[in-house]
Amino acid sequence: MARQKRSYSQEYRDEAVKMVIETSRPIAVVARELGLLDGTLGNWVSAYRKSHPVEEQPLALPDRARLKELERENRELRLQNEFLKKGGGLLRSGSSVSDAYELIDAEKADFPIVMMCAELEVSRSGYYEWRDRPESATAARRGVLLAAITAIFSRHEGRYGHRRVHEILRRRGHRCSVELVRQLMAQAGLRAAQPRKWQVTTRPDKQAAAQVPDLVRRDFTATAAGAKLVADITYVHTWQGWIYLATVIDCYSRAVVGWAVADHMRTELVVDAIEMAARNITIPTGAIFHSDRGSQYMSHEYRRTLKKLGLRSSVGRTGVCWDNALAESFNASLKNEMVNRTVFPTKAHARNAIVRYVELYYNRQRIHSALDYKTPYEILSGRTDNTLAA
């Protein structure tokens, strides 16, 4: 037998709807109390609301005033929150009153001065007095320094941190501390390129490497040019595929004295770099030539080249980056300061950029902390390059 459909009087329906509307209780709760289906009661409520539209009543004067007050308070709170995001650092201890005034002056177009003074706990009269006073000698000097710092940072394409920038300022005749340069760069948002995690490039040949001693033992100092050389291979991605760079670095001057670029990692790549190094500097017989355990540096062709040049082969013992730290340091600089910030459509573009970086920038313009803030070219030539301070 088919189940008989229940019928409800209009009065019952109206009372059920009132229980929802007048108490603002959920339809599901009221339906459960009355033994109704949620959908049934929901339909009744919808029908009632359609037939009894609510007319908005104008607010009484006290209510309208209170609403305006709440809207004003909401706007003020929103502005305060936005300002706190920008000036939160100044709310911590250690910030000076002048720092607060500088922030207020910079943000006065977007935030009320009264509010900013209150949030930073400084007086409005103090701010106006600071704003209207003539620029102090200290402020003027800091402005000149910041302009010089910005120019140096731009010239070196964001590669220099505060210590290297300070050295260039010193060469230009500016007298200032390293800490002041750091502060001004931080305030201006000038942040040097940051290094990325080291990655293995070459494939180790452990069996062949076991026959070659480690003559360096992580000591990358040298007493003369050409006495100790290090080598490595790194890679650069282009839209046309990978290219590889083999380098030979002189431990005495940190100069890249030999390099080769190709679209392969065969032994001839590293041999080309070694032969360039032999042409560029005088390498004494018995000089140390250090590399990682890559198969290219364990090949017969490589060994024949070293023997022909009178070089002693050396490889790292443990196979980690510290065993060839000087070469890895150059690779990191190349990647952080140029490769990772550039898109290369073709292999030719990448090769040209690498050559410019190595020959025109790294060897001749980039100062090294390990070289007492001189360039590799200055160490090799024995004279100071005054154009760096230009």
Strand order of the largest sheet: 3-2-1-4-5
CATH topology of the largest domain: Nucleotidyltransferase, domain 5
Rg, nearest Å: 36 Å
Q: What is the name of the CATH architecture of the largest domain?
A: 2-Layer Sandwich
**Helices and strands, in N-to-C order?**
HHHHHHHHHHHEEEHEHEHHH
State the helical fraction. Answer: 40-55%
Mean pLDDT: 83
Main beta sheet:
5 strands, mixed
| Alpha-beta classification | alpha/beta
| CATH homology group of the largest domain | Ribonuclease H-like superfamily/Ribonuclease H
Counting H and I runs of at least 4 residues, what is the number of helices? 16
Number of domains: 4
The parts where pLDDT drops under 50 for at least 5 residues are none
Give the class-level CATH name of the largest domain.
Alpha Beta
Distance between the termini: 103 Å
How many β-strand stretches?
Answer: 5
Detailed description of the structure:
- With 390 residues, this protein is of the alpha/beta class.
- It folds into four domains: 10-51; 65-132; 137-188; 228-383, Ribonuclease H-like superfamily/Ribonuclease H (Nucleotidyltransferase, domain 5, 2-Layer Sandwich).
- Helix content is 49%, strand content 9%.
- The chain has 16 helices and five strands.
- The protein has helices spanning 10-21, 27-34, 38-51, 61-87, 97-107, 113-120, 124-132, 137-155, 162-171, 178-187, 206-209, 267-280, 300-309, 325-337, 347-362, 376-381; strands at residues 228-238, 241-250, 256-262, 288-291, 312-315.
- The protein has a five-stranded mixed sheet, sandwiched between helices.
- Helix 5 (97-107) runs antiparallel to helix 6.
- The mean pLDDT is 83.
